[in-house]
Structures are given as structure tokens and as C-alpha cells.
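New here. Invent one.

***
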Amino acid sequence: MLNCIDNSGASVVECVANLRMKRHAKIGDRIIVVVQKHRSLGESGPGGSASSTAAGGTKVRRGDLRHAVVVRTAKKLQRKDGMVVRFDDNACVLINKTGDPIGTRVTSEWSPSNAPGNMLSTT
């Protein structure tokens, strides 16, 4: 189980396949995930109804198969300069098949220097 740290609508996802190797995924690897829990954006605010916000607010639903990039792992990763990077949890960002992020914002800290190439643009 991984946390999804973008605003695509998914909260918790489960990894079903690693596209790089048969082993566990590392930071920067592309994986295929299933959305286990999505964020409910349907609280009715001033001037809007709950059903209209919930219908158009999320980009993913529970049970959807999506591609993702791992951006945080609890396993230690040693960089080439000797620095060891470790996070408290495992997290990913959902992307489409071409590699563009589904959400528009990353809502938590992550290490863009570990992502290979321009997998996720920081601008």
C-alpha cells in the first residue's frame, strides 16, 4: 500500500506491477497501481451542492488501474554522493501512460533529485 500525494483524488493505492524489474520498486520507478481509497471532495460548501462537486472533483475512482511513479520509500537509498535518503512511508504520484502527472499539485514533500530524467517536472 502506498500513499498518493497528488491532488488527483486517490488517497491510498496498491501496487500490482513494477514496470522496470520483477523486484520491489525504488524511488523513480514506474509502477501500475489500483486505487484502494479515494478522497471524497463532496463536502457541500457555500453556494454549491455536494453531488456536483463530487462528480467533477475527482479524476480517479476506487478500483481504477493507473500508472504511477514512486517518490518516497521507507527503504534507505544511498545516493552517489554518499547521502542516505529514507522516508517514513511509501508514496507515489499518479501519471498517465505518456508520463504526465494526472494531478496538478504534489501535496507533500518528495525528492525530485532521485527521479530519473524528467519523469515529473517540478515547474
User: Anything to note?
Assistant: Strands lie at 2-4, 10-18, 30-38, 65-72, 77-78, 84-85, 91-95.
